Structure formats: C-alpha cells, structure tokens
Amino acid sequence: MKKNILIVGCGDVGREAGRRLQQLGCAVYGIKRTASDDIPFPCVYGDVSDVESLRACFAQLPDVIHYLVYTVAPAERTESAYQAAYPEGVKNCLACIDMPILQGFLLVTSTAVYHQQQGQWVDESTETAPTSFSGQKLLAAEGILSNSSVKAVAVRLGGIYGPGRERLINKVKNGCEINRDIPVYTNRIHRDDCAGILSYLIQMIDSGREVDNCYVGVDSHPVSEWDVLSCIADLLNINGPVHNEGMQVHHQNKRCRNDRIRSLGYEFLFEHYEDGYKQLIKNG
C-alpha cells in the first residue's frame, strides 16, 4: 500500500500508527507541536490552532496526502486547550489540505463524548450529550469533520494503557482504596491496538471496503476498577486494593461495546486487559 499519510499529533499512539503504516509501504509524515527525536518518520513543527502556522507546515510536506490521522493531545486539561486542539485544529487541517486528493481523515476522540455515568452499555449508536467540556469539544470536532466533504472516521478510544501509560499499575503499587460494592467501570485498550485500529481502518478504506463514520475503540472486556486493579496486583504479586465501604461513588461510568470494529474484521492484539497488562508488566 504505497500512500502518503500524514499523522497530526505524534504522541505514542500517532508514532506507533505511523510505524505500522510504514511497514505497509506507506510514506508517513508528521506534524507536531514541539521538537522530538524519537519519531520514526519525517516531522515538521507547528500549532494546529494557528491556521498560518499550519499552512507553513503543509508547505513543507508533499502536495499529495492520501490519508490524515489526527491524534492531537490538548496542551493542558482546560476548556480553551480542548477548543484549540479539537474543533479549531480539525477545522484548520481541513482548510489547509488538498481535499479532492484526500481519501480519508481519521479523527481520534474518546469515550468522553458519552454522557452516561451509571454503568450503562454504549456503542456507536448511543446518544451523545456530554456535559464535560472535554466531551463537548471532542464531539464538536467530530461534527465539523462529518459535515465536510472528505471520508471521515471518528475513533472513540477508551482508557489507553501501554508503555509510558501505567497509571493503574502505579495506583496498585502505591496502595489504594476502592468501594468494591459499587462497581466503577473502566474500558481499557492497549496502545498497540489503538494504532492497530487506525492502521486497519486505512487499509479497509484503501481496499474499497465500506467503513462507518464512527468506531468505539476498547477491548472486549469492560471491567470494574476493583477487578482490573486486583488483576494487576495478582500479576505483580503484591497486595491488591483495599475495600472501603465508606467511599462515596457518584459516577459509575459506562461499559462500551466494540462489536462494530470487530465485525469489520479487526483482530485485537490484546482483546482482554489481563493479557495486555501481563505483557506490559513483563516488559517493564
């Protein structure tokens, strides 16, 4: 598959997706906010929220870009940073790229677009009415893209773990208390499956397969935080979380289904969080 692919936002998911696409024979390029030495493909530096900065970036790239993968992370967790990274960044990319040539625009968002907080099951057809500013800005970016003329696909990722993303492992190591009686749900996905889904979707679009405009990216086992922390403790062979029945639980989060991406044919590297954490701990 010899296509020119642009990764906008070259964090660990973007870097890994680019590496996989290079292995398929694609020419991969990147746009990043700050300079870095660990990116395995040519990169230029600019600010997606500044259209002139972005135009200067595109001037340094090949005229022909077949696919754009947008994996930008906000500079900080504020409403203005989310506005800059998502609605503004996506709008500016669409303004700078040659739309008639572009065959697909993949936008990484998250399950924060769902407002459900009481353990409900959700999928791509579930209503989205987020109350958080992060969810609202992500959903606004999806809307801008879906109203454009390009083939657009939003990928709503769950809780990413993997190399450098060891929050739950550290939580267990540091000791933690959980109210076991009220399950607080989490939806996990390994960094390698995030990249794998993005690479797979591009392959499917390029092969002429019918691809939906939205996919939920989580593994096949939504899990209570108590259970995943206990699993990690067993893998580490240390004490697990401590039950505290006095802890108040206001939000149980939601349980996400991944049926749509699996029905498209994607095979998870880590379909169960236990397998992913086992490898992460072994390699750590």
3D structure, described in words:
By secondary structure, this protein is an alpha/beta fold. Helices cover 36% and strands 20% of the residues. It is built from 9 helices and 15 strands. Strands 3-2-1-4-5-7-12 form a 7-stranded parallel beta sheet, sandwiched between helices. Strands 6-15 form a two-stranded parallel sheet. A two-stranded parallel ribbon has the order 8-11. Helix 3 links the parallel strand 4 (67-70) and strand 5 (104-110). Helix 1 packs across helix 6 and helix 3 runs parallel beside helix 4 (133-146).
CATH architecture term? 3-Layer(aba) Sandwich
Largest sheet data: 7 strands, parallel
CATH fold call:
Rossmann fold
Number of helices: 9
What class would the helix/strand composition place it in?
Answer: alpha/beta
Helix content: 25-40%
What spatial order of strands do you see in the largest sheet?
Answer: 3-2-1-4-5-7-12
Strand and helix order: EHEEHEHEEHEEHEEEHEEHEEHH
Beta content: 15-25%
CATH class categorisation:
Alpha Beta
Rg (C-alpha, Å): 19 Å
Shape: globular
How many domains is the backbone divided into? 1
Report the uncertain regions.
Answer: none
By DSSP, the count of extended strands is 15
Average pLDDT works out at 96
CATH homologous superfamily name? NAD(P)-binding Rossmann-like Domain
From the N-terminal CA to the C-terminal CA, the straight-line distance is: 34 Å
